[in-house]
Amino acid sequence: MKKFLSISDIPDLDKAIKNALELKEDSMKFSTLGKGKNLVMVFFNPSLRTRFSTKIAAQNLGLGITTLDVAQQTWPLEFGLNTIMDGHTSEHIKEAAMVLSSYFDLIAVRSFPQLKNRDIDLKDVVLKNFSKYATVPIINMESATAHPLQSFADAITIRETKINNPKIVLSWAPHPKSIPHSVPNSFVKMCKQAGMNLVIANPPGYDLDPTITSGIKVFHHQEESFENADIIYSKNWSSYESYGQVLPTDQNWMIDLAKMDLTNRAKFMHCLPVRRNVVVEDEVLDSEHSLIQRQVQNRTVAAQYVMHQILTNVPTY
Ligand code: CP
């Protein structure tokens, strides 16, 4: 693997899940693989899980680790081409990527969308520019359109349930703020790539990017979609059609015990952070059917598998 920008950068997902589960059993198996090499984690946005799971995964591989919080720790970056840089930006991504590539062997990047202009966000400017100008492998720690480390961890978590061909419902849930599409986008892509039995439930006006959801049944009635479900994956996202907006929609889409009772004693998943009693009721999140801690734990093995694959492709000096 030369980069990890999308879940499709894992060519054989089934094999990757098996190998990741083996790695989980023996997380220090490759503890010297990264010796003498360094990872920089570049954050344009906050993180709890991604920050620490990627760090621990890198430690397990023997990598040196540096974290760069862009807003506090470096110059404001310019991403435009042929820009006359007489405004607030001080350094162009061309130089920043060259500098980081000179000091580090892997660059991991987190950059959220603005959720104001769909065409701009779909260009995934920050991640794509790092990928274009860096000369070392890039890892996507959540970009404007994708969160593949999360969806790979989710694939591992679903495999661990040992449910045979589970019916999975990706269900929209309410949220007061405008939330990106990256997690549901990558979850849908992962399920399609793995041949999983996925349906999506969201209110009218919240259909995801149709180029991503093509071939997947979309319900606009949540309770209908929950019948016989084995896994409920709850997530809020802002409107894709009325791009970035929080529509004045029915708040009755929160996941509660009454809805979970419609399922086949389904497991509950959420990538976190989650707003309790807005997205999901306490009783569901705290129940024995909740897989949230497993998802959190599997973020480490997902990141470790990805970096292992990249390191075994990196030329040695
Ligand atoms: N799920 C996830 O990516 O969490 P963080 O935003 O805290 O990294």
Structural commentary:
- Strand 7 (167-172), helix 8 (182-193) and strand 8 (197-201) form a beta-alpha-beta unit.
- This protein has helices spanning 13-25, 49-60, 70-73, 93-103, 118-122, 125-133, 148-160, 182-193, 210-213, 222-226, 257-260, 282-285, 292-311, and strands spanning 38-43, 64-69, 77-78, 91-92, 106-110, 138-140, 167-172, 197-201, 217-219, 231-235, 267-269.
- Helices cover 37% and strands 15% of the residues.
- The model has no long low-confidence stretch (mean pLDDT 97).
- The protein has a five-stranded parallel β-sheet with strand order 9-8-7-10-11. Strands 2-1-5-6 form a four-stranded parallel β-sheet, with helices on both faces. Strands 3-4 form a two-stranded parallel sheet.
- It starts with 12 loop residues before the first helix and ends in a 6-residue tail after the last helix.
- Helix 2 (49-60) crosses helix 13 and helix 7 crosses helix 8.
- By secondary structure, the chain is of the alpha/beta class.
- The structure holds phosphoric acid mono(formamide)ester.
- Phosphoric acid mono(formamide)ester binds next to helix 2.
